[in-house]
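Example (one chain per record):
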Amino acid sequence: MDHGQFQAPVDLSIQRSPDAGWVLEASRIAKSGVIQTCLVAFVLFWTAMETTCRYSSYFNIPETTKAVRFSLPYELFSQLLRGAALTFTLISGYHYYQYWMRSDEEVEKTAIGAIGSLVFASLVALMTPREWGPPPATENMAVNKHISEAQPTPEETSSWFVRYFSFGWLTPVIWKGWRTQVDMDDIPGLPWYDEPSLLLDRILKVRKRYKTTMWTVLYFQRSEIVAMTLWVASSFAIELVAPFAMYQILNYISAPNDAVLHPIIWLALLFMGLMGKSITMQQYVFTSTRLVVRLKSAMTQELYHRALSSMELEDDVINDIATRGAKEQRTQSTSAGRLANLMASDVDAVFRARDAIIGLVGVPVGIVISIIGLYKMVGWTSLVGLTFLVLSMSFPVWISRMMGKTQRKAKLAQDSRISLISEYLEAIKAIKYFSWEDAIIKRIQEAREKEQKESWHICLWYALLGQCSELIPVITLLLIFSLYIGVIKQPLTAPIAFTTLSVVMTLRRNMGYVSLMSRNLTSAHVSIERLDKFYSNTTPLTQYPEGPLQIEKATFRRSKRAPFMLKDISINFVEGGLNIIKGQSGSGKTSLLLSILGETTLEKGMVTRPSDVAFASQTPWLQSETIRDNILFHASFEQVRYDRVIKACCLGLDFGELPKGDLTEVGENGTALSGGQKSRVAVARALYSKAPLLLLDDIFSALDAKTAASLWKHSFCSDMLKGRTVVLVTQMPWVASQADLAITLEAGAVKNFERNVGVVRTPVELEYGTTNNEEFQESTTILKVPLAPDENRAGSSKKMKDEISNEMRASGTSGRFTFLRYMLHFGGPGYVILALASNVISNAVLLGTTWWLSVWVNAYNKKEAVNVAFYITIYAAFNFGQAFLSGISSLIFNRGAWLAARKLHRGLIQGVLNVSLGWWKNVPVGRVVNRFSRDVGSLDSQLSSTVQSFIDAGMAIFFRLGAVSSIMPIFMLPALCTVGIGIVCGEMYIRTAVVLKRLVSSSQSPVFSQFSGTMSGLAVIRARQDMPEMFRDQLADRLRSFSRFQETSFNLNRWVGVRIDFVAALVTVSAGAIAVWKVGVVEAGLVGFSLSNATGLNSQILYLVRFMNDMEVELQSFHRVEEYVKLPAEDEKHGLRQPDTDSEGHEDSSLLEVPEDWPRTGAIEFRNVTIRYDPDGPDILKDISLKFKAGQRIAVVGRTGSGKSTLVLSLLCFTHIVSGQILYDGVDITRVSRKRLRQALTIIPQEATLFNGTVRTNLDPSGTVPVQILEKALRSCTGIASFDYRESSSDNSINGAETIDGNDSMVPTERTPLLSFSSSSSSPTNGSGSGLISTRGALSLDTRVLAKGENFSHGQRQVLSLCRALVRKSKLMLLDEATASMDYETDRGIQVALRQELDAGDEKTRTLVTIAHRLRTIIDYDMVVVMGGGRVVEVGSPGELYKDKGVFWEMVRFSGEGEDLKGVLEGMAVEV
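Predicted structure:
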């Protein structure tokens, strides 16, 4: 009877349609299982065939393959069809459930088999690896070159189940990391669609369409953003399935006899809800982290691309954003520092705002569904709660706006600090020379204090925002409960209470997302504005028509606002000839070369030049690579050409003295080479190139006379430069007469021309017996390691690995509990205990709120009158107390982190500035800047919140497990088992993840290094045709490694996250199953209490793992900073200790306490001194014995690389004294503190270094020297290199801020405001410098100085270096080729100023030691020391040495001005 009742409707419906017979037949066939069986068989056969085929060519797919990559829509459509078929079958099975159960067994088995076969077929399809094919071709051939070589990666060929559910392609890496150490080769490759060059090509196209950064990012990653939106919306919707299942379980426990469905259905729904939420959220995070990698790679390259293709910023336009409406004075930052901060900080800030999608999509979806669910349970009271929730959002929005304003100020301060640090670290040698470490530390700390002041304000705003996020949902919950009980008069049952609590806590967590997101959003908003300002205010390089080098009636400015200009320049350069440019310092020689390169603004006129130019700058720029790599400069290796260039540049002998020859690493900025060697390597790079135009800026200035003559002979007097146009800036008087065209500049205009086209260039008069021997030695120097054809590429890959490996070694490792060591920096153990205690109490009170709710619910079950006011008051007290305690805990953590960041930054800057100079040889500046930017930024914002969240999640899990176990002790068994499995998975993950995180951090430093290195050599790089593309490819190589490691690190988090979520879901379902099993034994309120905590375990365990991962990443920053904090100071490194701490056995290593008035004289004595740069290196100086009397002027001369500079550096204790002693005023300098020693002498180095600020801060960074002494020093230099001094006007501020920002106080010279006002420069101009008044045409203490002294000519920088020496009034003054690049008039002025200073006073106690290549400078000195091969060759007065006809006599003959020098000696009554 029942059988007919269930069957009749179907039969009747089918019989009504006479043509429906085929439906019955199709239904019969479908139920038979034949189709499903065939499908399974076909899928298995196809899978086996494809796996077999793929195995042989998995990693070696030929270029001619016809493999096709399956399109995503087709894959989705296929899976949807399978899913639809399975769904319809299941629905059919449910509809005919009783029919199947009451029919014969054959029908039942057939139906079950059909369903089972379809399920199995779908699973096989999900588990089948996907096809892979080569990426599609693109229009950009440079991109095609990279992606055409792409190989399949595990991610691209993984099955849909592995791709979306398990992330199993990382399992081999996890297993490898579990068993042994993972290395770089074990990391999966980068998919072709994440190739950096492809991403750059895409973002550049988008940037042309959308000018603003925000729209560029949105369109560039539109597909990822859409996917993130769908995933996060699904996640927040599915998140509420678990509370619904818990509601049904509690209903069942409250009234098991009234249940319609078996509770196992709700337990299954609970599990599916938790796992569904996990999978969708993991996919959201997976997509968002992929977006992070792509944005980091693309935007970094875009910044680099813009920097290579545009002029540097002249005005601080980026910081204008941070000072809008601000009355305080703007702090100047440098272009290189701003670019570094844009790359390190602002790009990161942009992609950190990706979670805005959670706030814009996920949170609203969650709120809407939550309110619908609440309305079903508590009626209209939920709408009241929603109204309050919406109205109260205005307060967090206001807080976010205030945070944004503060964030702008913090960014300004951060820019200033990074600029200062970048500038000072690049000039670390100059800081060491003058012992300015303490003054520089003070100045950086002042900038840091401004930054931290704004950082603390952000912390306060953030804490207030957190309190809003805590209190708004709590008040909403109290409103709902009050209205539900007091107005509707309904009892608060366990299902209603705990489900409402769960939903409101979900709202609370979602509000927390908004709070967390707001900080990132405000930061991203500021960063996007800064990036937009950068892109809109960069000026493309001036592009000239291609043709012979010619300038017609052209006017150039360094920038649109620069006061100096080259005006009405018309030069027809001799094509294929030698063109000489000469003139006084500041006349515009270097500016003319830069104008030819297009590095200045062409205001009028016309310029033509060849497209490929080789430029050797006045200050040599070298890459941190081998000498050979610097000379080749990405060109192919040609042995014969290379040997000729080496011989022409006299490098053969230098290679013989270097341990690895031309394969010697030059170090950062060429620190491993002498000044002359650096200059000749830069010239060799220009000569080796095949550029038709060579621009050489004062290349002879760093060379001794003999080497300069040899370079002149082999390069300019041979066919080396045949057919190539050469423009040479030089001060050598004998060169101009042999030039095809000599141009004299004066005050930015052409003074005269000297044409001598077709002149035959001849070598300087030489003593050929000596030269022939030298030529023989140089020509027979054989390169030990020829370059293999494919070595460039392989070497590049190996070099990349070496860079990352070196950085990993520098980064070290961090232990599991490093966060406790970090917290000790908060303020000691007491502060740590306070922070932990506040967190424990906050979590305990949070648990108390749920416990009190269970007490309240059980009160209704006792069938007694319930005092609602009493229970709700206590419940409100718990909630408000927890919110208050949470805020206090957050402030305690933030304050401690703020103090820790201040302390660690101070220690970091002290560590890197006080470490010995030798440490810097193997440490790129970019690596150290990375510590100050990214790592210090982590200490400021990310690390403390991550540590607090980790501790909070750990405490929450502890309390929740305890709460559930106290009510249901048997719960401990499944909980411990599942947690144990989770711990094993976590341990497997961590062993691999730690290595990956170190690889990520280490692979980022080479990117910083290339950024900082490129900024120093922009003119050299941009001059060469296609060279910017080479450097862009080099950056892409570095980013390729970084992206590969970063992607894998992110994906490892997904691997462990899915597994931890699975374990946590099992824990929750176990708690629910136990509650169902013990129905009637435990009160409903307590069951709700336990289930509520068990359900929260899922998210808490997920958060624990996530925050633990994030914490380990951020702790790497702490470890890297701490490592540099612990660097030994110079005195400690050399074993020197304070006398009061030394034991008797270490008396020789104690520091001497020299009197305050030491030294009294400048007497120097070398006693059998042997010197090395490194303790294990070769001897540089051998058995040196010299004695310089107080008041003498001593010259040190010799061939480049002979040891002259080493002799001077040994007086500063920058070398290692193997044996012997150096006495300064009778005191062994190795027993004196390094700082004290360097304060007692002064050096004017070969390369003058100026810092961003004013003339006052450059002369006296410490601010301790009286103004009168500073003004006297400037007055002494008046007239040198167009130098004119005026006293600071009374209305100028003491720090010169007004002068810095005022353009009207500048009178132009070459890039500078320092020319004396003369008739030649006073004519009105059509720029901003027109109409200048002579009273303002001079230098003052408040005159602005740009970074590296870029607004000064080279000669004027040296004059300021001279002023520094005059200010210090040291007894010993050292000049290291300080005037080599000066014109003779400037050189003579500097020498006169020095002699006046040294001769001042009755007692001549001040000694001058000068290294000079220009013999005219030192011909009248008291003593000349001739160096050669690290030994003293000759010592005596100039006259005596000339008379002896030794090496010094040869040098006079080689100088090109031998007759003039001989006349000077004769005039001094020396018999020759």
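Caption: The chain has a mean pLDDT of 76.
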